Amino acid sequence: MKCDVCGVRKANIYQPHTGLRLCKECFMRNIVKRVKEELIKYKLIKPNEKVLLAISGGKDSFTLLDVMSKIHDTEKLVALTIIEGIHGYNRESEVCRIKKYVRERGVDHIVTSFKEYSGYTLDEYVKAADSKSLRISPCTFCGILRRRVINAYARELGMDKVATAHNLDDEVQTVLMNILRGDLIRLIQTHPKGPKLSKHFVRKVKPLRKIYEWETAVYAYFSGFEFQETECPFITTRPSLRAKLREYLYTLEKVSPGSLLNILNTIDELLGEVINDVVKHLPKELPLCIKCGEPTALNRKVCKFCELIDMIGLDTKRR
Ligand code: SF4
Ligand code: ZN
Ligand code: ZN
Asked: What DSSP line would sit under 36-99, residue for residue?
């Protein structure tokens, strides 16, 4: 069967949400085009801006690396890889491979770790929490620390934007989690025009937010990337709300292709209508944590990170 777009090459991929059968070239062009459209629609990255790419070594991050290196000046891109320190995950061989792919695209690369930044690996944080019988999800430590490290590097390097590899599936999970928790402030922050709540934050953009997870996997595969297929062990051993939503949404998309895209497009439209009104009522600047000096939530004096490390009793470097 021929490709529905070029009509020349053999189709080898079926895109359920459009009903199209595509050849490899047209599929890859389709992904680059949709990323560009999203960036242009919301003016997310200007041509002269310096962008820090968060590259973990998973399929999404390689797709981000490849697409961004095709549509942005590679001299203005820097890739950052963070080793969380999870047993059986983030092995050294993965880091060598990431280095090679980043270098091949002419992009500068920085590798760091939770250990280097804060003094402890993720496993050590989790062990400390367990030893005090505190039921804190590893993903809570991991998410907070990763955001901190990325922002700190972006700030120190004078980057204009941070681009993360969140795909459509991730983004819909985040949107629904914020709706389920009734957290309007976090919900509007998922919108591309969401507010930057502190001058200490470098603005985050998600170029792949309209690309399905399966599409990033196929794109990475077609690009010749060998990516880390082992999932983080904490995904299955400690299921979080996100992991549960991921499964529900996977089933929904199978029954009704295009659902995730429709959910996100609808939420974007609705939020786009109210975002300025909501932002008007927010303070211009978040308060700073009295312990570490980083921005913290509106009603807090001590940030979530400092609160957690105080609870588990680790003498973590606070930067
Ligand atoms: Fe971190 Fe949780 Fe993702 Fe594992 S599943 S890498 S602990 S956020
Ligand atoms: Zn084609
Ligand atoms: Zn703090």
From this structure: HHHHHHTT-S-TT--EEEE--SSHHHHHHHHHHHHHS-GGGEEEEEEE---TTSS-HHHHHHHH
| Per-residue model confidence as pLDDT tens digits over 262-273 | 999 999 999 999
Domain presence at residue 310: no
**DSSP 3-state assignment of 257?**
coil
Indicate if the pLDDT at residue 232 is higher than 80.
Answer: yes
pLDDT per residue as tens digits for the range 272-291 = 999 989 888 888 899 999 99
Structural domain for 85, as ranges: 28-284
Residue 42 lies in a domain: yes
Overall number of domains in the chain: 1
Q: Is position 227 within any domain?
A: yes
CB-ligand 1 contact for 234 (6 Å cutoff): yes
**Model pLDDT, residue 236:** 65
Q: Hey, what long-range contacts does 223-227 have (CB within 8 A, 24 or more apart)?
A: 223/28, 223/62, 223/63, 223/66, 225/59, 225/62, 225/66, 225/101, 226/97, 227/57, 227/58, 227/59, 227/62
Nearby residues for ligand 3 (ion, Cβ within 5 Å) = 289, 291-292, 303, 306
- Which one of the ligands is nearest to 57 CA? 1
Give φ, ψ of 77 to 5 degrees.
-110, 140
Top pLDDT among 274 and 235 is at 274
**Residue 114 within a domain:** yes
Q: Which of 89, 234, 240 best tests ligand 1's pocket when mutated (most atoms within 8 Å of CB)? A: 234
Does 272 contact ligand 1 (Cβ within 6 A)? no
